[in-house]
Amino acid sequence: MPALFTRLSRRRELLRIPAHLLQEAVAEGWSKWPLETGGILLGKPGPDGHVVTDLIGPGPEGRHERYGFTPDSDWQAEQVAARWATDSNLHYLGDWHTHPGGSTRLSRLDRSTARDIAAYEEARQPNPFMLVLALGRDQTVRVGAARLINDRLRRVVVHPH
Description:
This protein is α/β, with parallel strands linked by helices and 161 residues long.
């Protein structure tokens, strides 16, 4: 029995995201290339992982830079409130962003952002997900994600469906 427990405890967590939402994020990323963009992930916990049900972009006043972006926080808050008004079971799961010409590896700033989210009481998310879309110069897209657990970002499996 101990070997089975060890195997199960090492299993990576699953983040499910509908293909159309993933494509929406990718399209937003290419529209800002070679600058970064991103937004918010909303969803629900499921029996075999969390499910992203909604994606919110950077907003009209978002600022996009080569190695970072600043969202239009007021606009995002309005969007989240509107979605919660129609589905109070939604959870803020974390953030998504792009790495133009980069990798899915999370940067020091990404790690700091995850910790800030976890510490921000209004987010009600002590273990946020960070979804990264690496947009390659050769038009490739790689997807990676991690979740902050015990103050460490741990890789999760992203499953488009």
